[in-house]
Every structure is written in structure tokens, then in C-alpha cells.
Amino acid sequence: MSYLINRRDLDFLLYELLDAERLCRLPQFAQHDRATFEQVIETAEQLAESQFLTHAAEADQHEPHFDGSAVSMLPQVKTALDAFIAAGFLSAAFPVEDGGLGLPYTITAAANALFTAANAGTAGYPFLTAAAANLLRVHGSDTQKLRYMRPMLAGRFFGTMCLSEPQAGSSLADIRTRAIPQADGSYHLVGNKMWISGGEHELSDNIVHLVLARIEGAPAGTKGISLFIVPKFRLDANGDPAARNGVRLAGLNHKMGFRGTTNCALNFGETEPAIGELVGRANEGLACMFHMMNEARIGVGTGATMMGYAGYRYSLDYAKTRLQGRLASNKDPASKPVAIIQHSDVRRMLLAQKSYVEGALALCLYGATLVDELEAAEQESDKESLRLLLDILTPIIKAWPSEWCLEANKLAIQILGGYGYTRDYPVERLYRDNRLNPIHEGTNGIQALDLLGRKVTMKNGAAFRLLLTTMQSTVKAAGATPELAEYAGALAAAITLAANTTQTLAGAALKGQVDLFLANAAHYLEMLGGIVIAWMWLRQAQVAQLALAGAAGTDMDFYQGKLSACRYFFRYELPKCEGHAKLLMQLDDTTLTIPEGSF
Amino acid sequence: MSYLINRRDLDFLLYELLDAERLCRLPQFAQHDRATFEQVIETAEQLAESQFLTHAAEADQHEPHFDGSAVSMLPQVKTALDAFIAAGFLSAAFPVEDGGLGLPYTITAAANALFTAANAGTAGYPFLTAAAANLLRVHGSDTQKLRYMRPMLAGRFFGTMCLSEPQAGSSLADIRTRAIPQADGSYHLVGNKMWISGGEHELSDNIVHLVLARIEGAPAGTKGISLFIVPKFRLDANGDPAARNGVRLAGLNHKMGFRGTTNCALNFGETEPAIGELVGRANEGLACMFHMMNEARIGVGTGATMMGYAGYRYSLDYAKTRLQGRLASNKDPASKPVAIIQHSDVRRMLLAQKSYVEGALALCLYGATLVDELEAAEQESDKESLRLLLDILTPIIKAWPSEWCLEANKLAIQILGGYGYTRDYPVERLYRDNRLNPIHEGTNGIQALDLLGRKVTMKNGAAFRLLLTTMQSTVKAAGATPELAEYAGALAAAITLAANTTQTLAGAALKGQVDLFLANAAHYLEMLGGIVIAWMWLRQAQVAQLALAGAAGTDMDFYQGKLSACRYFFRYELPKCEGHAKLLMQLDDTTLTIPEGSF
């Protein structure tokens, strides 16, 4: 069995749950059909297994090394990336006129998911490059697209996003990197950037850094931030890399996991000019960057999900083959040991993993379809609805999988026991890799503030209301099926709870109690996230229940599994939202009132 | 500030909460007083900081290495252990007549806790040695005590516990190592042992393996297991190490964390005889081993707690000094950034850690006082009560801290953000180290079965009832204090919930539905564990509330912190027990009914 994913499940999510084929009816995807999509996924799976998975453990043991002048790493990384680029994956989601394959984001997100499951460290480089190239596609000038985006999509140049600084991680308002205007219209950048993934390596002819900085004299805070291209090598008139630019690696960060992707402290303009060019308009850099944020955050959520998924698959296979112990009801010590999948606590840990990773993947791919639909929508009212749904779901898509699919990895280790704790098995590596996901691309604390403080309240609660009514339509449809009535009822009650909780919180906000309103934002995200995943499970159960009647053989098992996981989620996980709601309704101020000296 | 522990808190727990001074009134501890105890803790803290903490990160980076003939490791490990032994810590809890210091277990547990907080890998060797020596103290013959236990207590020999085998981790009934009786009364052992901590090294003159094996012809299952001493070097007539015995290192396991302690696959009698001697009576090996289990499991719980505690302290210090962002209510981007401890989500993560680690430490030390009291008790009725309480609390003491203080480590990383994810800071190492604790010394799944399937039901529920009435007496006393009435009421309700849940489950057991009875044992442990920790918080709050009136300065802050953490635990954590109880009351069979092919 493949450890990366259950392909039957991926097909179920794409075609039975989300009807990805309908994307082919949109004008920009009209050249594709389901056969193309399946070929893409098939190729991705083969490449991920044959080129990425094969060096995942070794890359973890031998992380990139900086000798003071260059960064070296396992040669298999470049081999894998060359194959990835040659197969067209780097530019797959880009329009054909930009040199891409014009595939829906939904399909490339699913394909990329397989590479993350196999080897997140190696997959990081092209993912970052595609994200940076996409930013230039939307905000770059024609010249910038030609000189930077095109070589990035061809895999000749790689890209980075340089936001954080050593003194300002989550707080972009406080970045200090300066951009000094030059007579020729260019800028000299001066400052230090931190946590820059892919910030240095020898994998590509050039590295295109997209850098947030302040033009001298710009307003304080986020309204004075601009976006710049600062390449490692300046381009000559032909667009070829020429003179070295003044961006230098100060040092590599040595991480607990995700070790294959270099993570860098970069100095700009320390000893030589770091020459950059402005992207978009001055002081609008953060808006440009945030435009890409939804997809970047869906990417993190999907990555977290797939690390959990791979651990689930591995521990499932282990549980089926490892013989140990007997059922509690069997007192005969001379009887043969059973496969540990027969022990209820192992089954609990498998069902928990299954419900987290398959529920999360459904949500991530659903989010991806919203991106495609938004890109294709022609009516402004459709656009608005899609944008609202995407906006409110994005912090959940980023944060929920990165909490709970990490928990899945923890359970996978537990199923393997002592073996799971050793580096001879992949589950401990997946756990270490996944621990990054609650931190980067906006910590989960920041996601919680974004959700409650911005997305829920924006436009008088329009996004929140739309999410509730969208979920309610599933409740209504599922409630008619007797087998699903229990879950439909539970989801309906949870939606009411979320509405009431939100009303109470909004009351505090209206009274100006801003700190109290946001004090338990993390619990709000947990609550709403759990409800949204329950909704995804009810939708999956609907499809499975309907299909079960006509199913046979392994398909029957498969659909039954969806129903069992739905039941698990509704009985074991969704009830947690009640505790969160109670706490939130009380407007509890415990965290605000404890004196600093009392910790 | 010390990262290992808040000494004010340790003193509070030992003297204000648990009245450790009263132990000096017991005959065997009459030679001690509080001053002695404080000196022991003081020495432990200094030694832990100066000799153990100093090489913790380096030992993690450079784990022990086996070149095929010998195991090498950092020289600082031996230096630290020599100092530890010279200061008397290895034998501190042993009676004076055995060469120990005759200190209460409570005090040595507290002292040992500091070494774990500093460097669990190095501390592992003497802890294992003391546990093995203690087993010989109780079950060994006089000759065995003289020849093996005494040199162990002197630190000349180290010890191990050899239980698990590659095919039998949790299932001791299935161990296969054979013991073949010899004409001279000795045994030749033949078999493979796995996960043996401290199984090979060059730190001591000898290694005394305590090995579970089957004498040829013994009954199947756990009733045919005997205990043997198998030394690395056989002793000559003078008790000095002489000829090499046939126990050989097959290989070191390479772990995610806890890397300083060698973890070994050992072969017995593969190419040369592994000569052993029986400890206690034939076929009673498991009973001998289990006699030591309570203390070993309290040791794991305390270790898990202290790894969490060290992470809490480190992230607290970081949160006080790291400046970033502004309060949500402050919209002025030109204002100065605040220390992140002012952000409510950081405070939430600190309070959660505080409530987990201080609550868990209170429970572990309370368990330790039960061990001391049981050892000293003269009336059989007292003995019986103490034994019951200790028996039912032990699986909770092992499992709850190893789940929730690991969660504390996860939160500590989150507070440090990207920095926390790098190996330049200790929090990621503590998280990796702590991940072992839910696995070893009986996985937490095994603890859950032990709690519900054995401890709760034994003697017609006597231990369970005693635990409830003991907790109820706290409820009654605390209920009289208006400031604590909310918590007393909540604990009373939770106790009732636990009683009802247990009754429902017992009903299923009585009907012979054994698998259904135990299907959600993990949730039962979570539920009862949370209630017990809430009880510990209410007890701490009682003491703090009383002391607050007469307190001044930092003491006032300290007691206020106890009250705030109590409030946090009761409002944010205890309510989770309702969800567990609901699930358990339903006798939910989701995990039992899903077909194996449906995962």
C-alpha cells in the first residue's frame, strides 16, 4: 500500500464530494477533462514515491550545510526537483499564456499534497517559487514578469518571500528593512530578514527574493510597507544572472524538523548594495502580499494534513501486521496474539487520525475549489460570496489541520510504540516536520485573531452568516436521510451554538471591550474549526450513504469507513465545541487578569 | 531565574501543601528535619545546573555511539554522574543500613525531578540503577544484596530492567527468553531483549541486568515468568567483575529524543552462555517486578512533569523579555512594542502550561508521600487505605503528566515561535524528550486498561470509592471559603459524574461485555485524570487563599498565581470531563464496530 495517501479517498474527495470535473466547464479549464486530472495525480504519485520519498529520511539526517560561502545538500534534492520541473508541476497552475499548464488550483493542490506527504523539505523549494511567481503574475510589471516570473516558472530561478525580521516575527508593522531610492529608479535595501525558507542554496541559477521593506519616509506601521524584487544575482540586459547582489546568507537555522528546506537569516546591503526594484505601488506591499495569503495558508493547511495523512497510513499498515496481545475478553494466554488493529485503543487512535486527516483534506480541497471558482466567477455577486467564504475559512484551513494533523502524527507514533520513537520509522520525522505548521505563515494565535477579530466581524458579519447558511443547507439535505439524522441534528445544534457565541462576543466588541472580545480567540477558532470539519464529515457521509447502496467489495468497505469516521468525529470530537462555547459565552477574563508576577 | 523549577513553588508543594515535615515524625525518618530536606534540594539544584544542564544540548546533538565493540559518549556524562554519586543521590532513598541516606522518597523524588529537568538523558542511568537496586533490596537474597545491590548503591555497578522483547512490547505474557537450569543452580539465559535503557555503556565497572525470562517448562502467560540477575561481567569470589558474561549489545536504538540514555537491543546467550541467578521464587518474577512498578511509574510521571516544567519556565522568561506587537486595543503603530507576555494568547499558553505542570507536580509529590506513608504505616487498615489510593492513582500519575506536560512543551515552542522550532533553544529538545513518556513504562493505553480494568474494579471498587471520598473531603473543606465555592461546586459535580460513569461502565462489565466496557478506557483515564488534577488545584488554592491574607510582596504574587491557575484549570480544563463522561455513559462502540477494511 502507498503511504502517501489512499488514492481511493483522494478520488472520492475530488470527484464524488467536490465534483472537480465541473471545473472543466469553466472557460479557462475547458481544455481539460477528468482523464487529464487523473493523469496529473498519477504522475505526481509516481514521482513523489520514486524521487521524493526515497531521500526523505536521509535529507532529515543530513541537513543542508553552510561552509561560509555556499550551501551544500544531498544531490538527490536537485535530481528530484529537476524531475518535478521537467514534469511541469512547478508551473502547472499557471495559465498557458504564462508558460503553465492551466490546471485548476484544486488539481495542482492535490498533486502537490502528494509531494509534501513524501518529502516536505524538498518540496518546499518549488512551492515557494510558485507562490512568489504567482505574486509577480498578479502584481508585477510586464518587464518583471518577463525577466523574473518566466525563468521562475521554467525552474531556472527559484523564489522566496522575505517578510519576518529577527525582532518582528508576527508583527509586520514593526519591520525595519529600509529601501533607499536611487537616481535610476531602483532601490538599495538595507536590513535583516529572518526565517527565510529557501533563502540560499545552489539548486537554481538565481534566487528571486520578494522583500517587504519601508521606503525612507514612509508612514509607520503596515501602511508604509512596500514590496521589492531583490535577486541573488542581478540580471543583465538579456535577463541572465550576472553580478552578485548584496543579499547574503548570515546563517542557516537548525530546525527540529522540515530540515530539507534551508531556513535562513539574510543580510541585505551590509557590505555591498542590495539592489531591488519596486513591485506594484509604494506603500502597498502588504496588500500585494496578502493577496497571495489565502493560497499560501491553504498550502500550509494542506501540507499539515498530508504529513498527518502519511503518518496515518504508515501506522495503519503497522497495526495490521504487528501481532501483539489478545482481546480483553480473551483470557487464554496460550492463544495466538492478534494484530494490534484488533485492540480497541489502537482502533481509537486510527479512527481519530482518519477523522482528522480525511476531514482536513476535504476542507483544504474544498477551499481550493473556492479559489478556482473565484478566479472564474463573472458575476460580482458570485465573486463576493466566494471571496467571503474563502476569507472566513482560510484561517481555519491553516490552523485546524496544523493542530489536529500534528495530533494525528502523535497518535501514529503511539501506535508504533517504541519503534515509532526511533528514527528507523518515518512517523517521528513527520511529527517533527509537522510541528512547524502551527508556527509559520502566521502562527495559529494570529489565525485566531484574524478569524474572530477580522473575518467574523467584517462587513457586519456577512462572511460568518454565509458560512452558517452554507452549512445549514447541508444539515437540511442530510437530515432527510434517517442514517444521518443524528449527525444533522448535532451539526444544527453546533451551528446555533456558534451563532450565539459569536453574538455574545460581538456584544463585547461593540462595547469597546476589544481585549476581552479577543481574549479567548484561540478557543473560538477551535470551536468553529471543529464545527466546519464536522460539516465536511457530514457532507462526506451524505455521499457515502448514497453510494453504499450500489457499492460492492472494497468499495463497500470504503464507504462504510467514511460513515464510521463521520460517527467518530460527531461523537468523540464535535462535542468539544460545547466546552469552548461555554467558556466564550462567559467572556472569561482569566488570562487577562493574572498579574505578570504571578506566573 | 532558574529554568529547572520555581523553587518557591517546590517549597510550597512540599511544605505548605503536603507538609513534608511531618514525615520526620515517622520513626525511619526521625533523624531528618526540614533543614536537611532543604539542603538536599539545594544541592540537587546546584548540581543539576552546574553538571547536568551544561551538556544537555550537546548530548542531544552527539548521541552515544557503538563502534561494534564499545559504546562511547560525551565525557561530561561520566563527570556529572560521578558528582551525582559522590553527593549521595544514587542511594539517597535507601535505608542507612543499606548504605543509603535514609531520606523519604518524597524528598529524593523532588531532588531527582531537578536532574530530569536539567538533563533527562544523563539522569536516566542512576535512576534505573536505583530502581533495580530497590528491587534487589526487597526481593534479593542477602548474598545478592551484598554482591549486587551494594555496589550498585555505591555507583560502581549500574543496573537495568530487561522486560520487553522485539515481538512483545506491552504484552509481557508473550516473552520468549528462556532460562535453562544448570547443575550448579544457576541458569543460562537465551533470548533477545528490546528497548533496554542503559543496556550498554562504559560508565560503570559492571551492568546488572534484571531480566524476565521463562524457566523451561513454566506455565504459559504471565504466570510462568521468573526474574534473573544477569551481569555484564560475572563476579569473582570477592564480588569483583571478572569474566565477560554472554549478554551482548545487538545495537543501539536511535531515538527522536532522550538521546543521552543508551537504548539497546540485547542478545542473551547467542554465542556464549549468559549466566544468571534467580531472584525470589520461580514463576513469581512479574509480581517482583510489579512491586516496583508504582515507584517506576511515579518516576515517569514526575519526569514528564519536569520536562514540561522546564519548558514552561523557559517560555515564561522569553515571554517577559521578547518585545513584539501591541495590545489589540491599541491602534497606534508608532507606539512601542510590548513584551509578548502582555498578549492574551501568550498568557493563555503560559497559564495552560502552569496549570498542567504545577498541577501534575502536586500530584506526583502527593503520590510520593503515599509511598513514604505506606512504607511507614503500622496498622493494617492504614496500609490498606494507602495501598488502595496509591494503586488507583499510579496509572493517572504516569499517564496524565505524560500527555499534558508534553502538551505544555508544545505550547512552550509556540510561545518562542520560529526560535522555539530551532535547536538553539531548549524547548524543542524537551518536546522530543518528553514524547517518550507516553510510551515507556507501560504505554498510556496500557495505563488506561490498568486503571479501568483493574484498579477501579478491584476489591469491589474499594480504591475508587476511597479516592472519591478523599476528594470529597477537600470539596467540603474548600466549599466553606467563599472565594473557592465555585471550584468546590465544580469538583463536586465532576466527582458525581465520575461515579455515575463508573457505575454505567461497571454494569457493562457485569454483563460480561468486557470489550465494550474497556473500549473507551483512554477517555476514562482522561476524565478521571482531569478530575484528580482539579482536586490538586483546589487543594493548592485552599492553601494559597489562606496564606494570601498574611502575605506581602512577591509572596502575594505567588499565591495569587496559584489562585489564577486554579481558576484557569477549573474553567478551561475540567469541563472537558463532561464530554468524556457523556461518551463513556453511551457505551459507545464506534471503535469496535468499524470493519478492518474500512480504515
Summarize the entry for a quick read:
In chain A, 56% of the residues lie in helices and 11% in strands. The first copy, chain A, has 19 helices and twelve strands.
Please name the defining characteristics of this protein:
globular; 5-stranded mixed barrel; homodimer; 599 residues; two-stranded antiparallel ribbon; 12 strands; alpha+beta
Number of helices of chain A: 19
Averaged pLDDT of chain A: 96
What's the main sheet of chain A like? Answer: 5 strands, mixed, barrel
Structural class of chain A: alpha+beta
Percent strand of chain A: 5-15%
Intertermini distance of chain A: 50 Å
Arrangement of strands in the largest sheet of chain A: 4-5-12-7-6
Multimeric state: homodimer
Rough outline of chain A: globular
Radius of gyration computed on alpha carbons of chain A: 24 Å
Proportion of helical residues of chain A: 55-70%
SS elements, strand count of chain A: 12
**Largest interface: chains, residues each:** A-B, 104 and 104 residues
Which runs of chain A of at least 5 residues are low in confidence (pLDDT < 50)? Answer: none
Task: Please characterize this protein's 3D structure.
The structure is a homodimer of 599-residue chains. Chain A has 599 residues and is an alpha+beta fold. Chain A is built from 19 helices and twelve strands. Chain A has a five-stranded mixed β-barrel with strand order 4-5-12-7-6. In chain A, helix 4 (75-86) packs across helix 5, helix 5 packs antiparallel against helix 8 (293-321) and helix 13 runs parallel beside helix 16. Chains A and B meet through helix 9, helix 10, helix 11, helix 12 and helix 15 of A and helix 9, helix 10, helix 11, helix 12 and helix 15 of B.
